[in-house]
Automatic annotation (TrEMBL), chains A, B:
GO terms for cellular component: plasma membrane. The chain crosses the membrane at residues 314-334, 346-367, 388-410, 416-441, 453-476. Acts as a magnesium transporter. It is a multi-pass membrane protein. Its main location: membrane. This is Magnesium transporter MgtE. It is found in: Cell membrane; Membrane. The keyword NAD does not apply. The lineage of its organism: Bacteria, Pseudomonadati, Pseudomonadota, Betaproteobacteria, Nitrosomonadales. SUPFAM superfamilies: CBS-domain pair, MgtE membrane domain-like, MgtE N-terminal domain-like. GO terms for molecular function: magnesium ion transmembrane transporter activity; metal ion binding. It holds the Pfam family MgtE. InterPro entries: CBS_dom (IPR000644), CBS_dom_sf (IPR046342), Mg_transptr_MgtE_intracell_dom (IPR006668), MgtE_N_sf (IPR038076), MgtE_transporter (IPR006669), SLC41_membr_dom (IPR006667), SLC41_membr_dom_sf (IPR036739). Residues 232-288 form the CBS domain.
Length: 477, 477
């Protein structure tokens, strides 16, 4: 970002982080030195200058940047920084950090501090962090809110995490359709400020039913005497709070929205969704997908204590272990064959490995197309045919290469041919199940992005071993 | 989305797709039937009604929705629909489809059609599809543009795909700082419309240098007699066109921006970046990461001809094959040991598999933290220590389980102990290289998300086989 001093310099966030770590280390050293020199003095006075610079730096940072710094600090140092952040920003910072890090921060707060932090937030924001707060605190928060806000918080907390309701906020500016632009402008001027991401005003009737929207862009270029009615857009995107957040995100991307209405079954305006909530959702969605593919259950605090990391990793390791045991027993069936022709042991991982790779390629394609809603009964067959075609060619090409490899090393043409045939069959198996597994999970209402990859690898491993060792037993021994 | 008829119903996109495929199939059947009945009649007339409904449906759809439908159709049917889409929307639709599908569409257009499509687009949009157009067409497009637009197109095409310049558009509304709100409002009213995503006006001096921004939110609530100067925000985020798009995206997420200025080295306003460009970028970035992890080189047209799919998949299969050959040769070294104790062949994939899984967990963590800029020299050591700790515990726990498994099946305590030790060592290897591989790639200026996973799996496979078979040879034979 630009270096001009009038513009915010976010480029320096990495440098800020380095500087903060440096200051914290200095501080620790100073304390240690003080302890050695005057073991009975305890808290030394010479730490002041460094801490002052640190405090200064933190005060200047945007809450989102403070959150970023907290994420990157080891636990002990993170808590020192957290203590130094001005109490009035606690709420906003808690909102910005990841779930895992939020837990570590909340663990150091008493209920009074949590209550104070929650009071800085809007109802929809409190709902976002509510699951990390003790229930007594939530109760107190409720008590502290005015009736209308209480209703909003209750509403916001009632929707599942992946629904539009969870993305919704309540910062809507509403107008009536029979007034003029002039009146609207005067009305707006009486407000202290418009909510962030207000790119349009919601036009409602007396019963709060949504009639249309008036984009600010239109408001600003319209004749002051024109009525809302004559300028507003009636064709507008609106969501129900129970709709999938995923679908709202697609609509935002497709129609380039900044904000959109949320209405109930009778078209009564309940709130709105803004692009920043959608962007956070997209980021979380794709990140949790990547974590799952990488074998992690959920986002992990970089500096989580070891036992917490273990909990996050054991699920997938355990599943993997079960599939590995199965594969091992498949090999066990053919121990006699391997004893007679030990080359089989060296060659079998090739068949399993390439099969797994190819199966995962198919899975990736299909999972993606399913997420985009591009697959249906009518085109699934075509897709299936294509994947089979790809795997036949791949099987012949790569099968020949591995067959040649086997022949060159073990000087057996029949071993080479068995390799080629096994590769072809395992790639076909990978293609068939690479299509069927995600489609089946999707049909069962489960997310095909989770688990498909493990399943296909299990199939191509055990299946690959079985096909290769079985063919070898039939034809070579 | 709401069912009220005044609101746009995007919920029905899936249904639209089904309906379109159905209409196309009807059409094909009708044609076949006509051929059978009157083989010499050729093009029949009875197809009209279905085609009329199809045309009607397509005309009502948003260009982004048409793009979505095109993506989901097999090639032949896709081209029928493409032919039916009104020519004046060609440009917008081309902009919305994926690169792979765009290629198939452009292949059917002559240069006149391509030129006409490009003429519907802004300079920054033409730049987005320029790489898919033949160079003569680009030349003609240049010639057809007014001088100022030509400059913009040249500028937009000159930035690499992952830079802020590639996300930039030129739809900026600029004002001077010495005028009043009243004057600004009058000025805006003279415009036909404000560009989409205009949430702020850029305040510049005579030399087009950026002085600050005036958010519409502030404009609307301010006293009409106040000057821009007294209301505008001077502290604003601005990017350089050569900055990484990735960093701009992080700034948009962190500071919840809708649009932001792009300035050159002298703070002269060049254009702006909007949240919709950023959202598209985030989506593409995370999708290409997922494709890479799944072993695909790039996005693939669902219905690509087989040879195109093969090209997309061979890179990773070839790399995988090389690593599989290496692992195979590692096993080859120990063929004598396996011949003597054939249980080794059945057990070795367990060690390799769990090692790969655990290594990928570490990689996923580190790659993520690197992307977020959370790792530096100061905290890398802590992170390393944590991963080592996790893998020691995992090694002992899972090592004991697989040791027990081996003991129960093969009734050999020493074999069980070798399994346990091999698992521990392979998990340590996975942790060390799971940290080192992405950090090294990052230091070399390469994207650690690409290739890290293949590398770690190669290491834990070959390494796992070597460790297990080596230990077995030392202690069991």
């Amino acid at each position: 970002m630009t270096k001009a001093n009038k513009l915010r310099e976010t480029e320096n966030l990495q440098e800020h982080l380095q500087r903060i770590i440096h200051l914290l280390r200095q501080q620790e050293l100073a304390e240690e030195r003080a302890h050695v020199a005057h073991p009975d003095l305890g808290e030394s006075v010479e730490k002041k200058p460094d801490l002052a610079e640190l405090q200064n730096l933190l005060d200047r940072l945007h809450p989102a940047d403070v959150a970023h710094i907290l994420e990157a600090l080891p636990l002990e140092e993170r808590l020192i920084v957290w203590d130094m952040v001005k109490a009035e920003r606690d709420g906003e910072i808690l909102l910005e950090v990841s779930d895992a890090v939020r837990e570590t921060l909340i663990a150091t707060m008493n209920s009074g501090e949590m209550l104070a932090a929650a009071e800085q937030l809007d109802a929809d924001e409190i709902a976002d962090i509510a699951s990390d707060l003790p229930s007594e605190v939530i109760h107190d928060v409720f008590q502290s809110l005015p009736m209308e806000e209480r209703e909003k918080l209750r509403a916001a907390m009632s929707y599942p995490e992946d629904s539009v309701g969870a993305l919704m906020d309540f910062d809507v500016v509403t107008i009536r359709e029979d007034v003029t632009m002039e009146v609207v402008l005067r009305y707006l001027r009486r407000l202290d400020e418009l909510p962030d991401h207000t790119d349009l005003l919601f036009v409602v009737d007396r019963g709060e039913h949504l009639k249309g929207v008036l984009p600010l862009n239109r408001l600003l270029v319209s004749d002051p005497n024109a009525t809302v009615d004559s300028v507003m857009t009636r064709q507008t995107v609106a969501f129900h709070p129970n709709e999938k957040a995923h679908e709202a995100a697609q609509a935002f991307e497709r129609y380039d929205l900044v904000s959109a209405a949320v209405v109930n079954g009778e078209d009564k305006l309940m709130g709105r969704v803004t692009v920043n909530a959608v962007m956070d959702f997209i980021r979380e969605e794709s990140s949790s997908e990547a974590l799952n593919l990488g074998g992690l259950r959920q986002e992990e605090d970089l500096f989580a204590p070891i036992w917490k990391s273990l909990k996050n990793r054991w699920t997938w390791l355990a599943i993997n272990l079960v599939t590995a045991f199965i594969a091992s027993r498949v090999i066990g069936i053919f121990e006699d064959s391997i004893e007679k022709l030990v080359a089989l042991a060296a060659l079998m991982p090739i068949i399993a490995g390439i099969g797994g790779n190819s199966g995962n390629q198919t899975i990736t394609m299909i999972v993606r197309a399913l997420a985009l809603g591009q697959i249906n009964a009518a085109n699934a067959r075509k897709l299936f045919a294509k994947e089979m075609g790809v795997s036949v060619v791949n099987g012949l090409v790569w099968g020949s290469i591995v067959g040649l490899f086997a022949f060159l090393i073990y000087r057996s043409a029949s071993l080479g041919l068995v390799m080629t045939l096994a590769m072809l069959l395992n790639l076909l198996l990978a293609a068939v199940l690479g299509v069927l597994i995600p489609l089946t999970l999707h049909k069962l209402g489960r997310d095909p992005a989770t688990g498909s990859s493990v399943l296909i690898t299990a199939v191509t491993d055990s299946g690959g071993f079985f096909i290769f060792l079985g063919l070898a037993t039939l034809f070579l021994l």
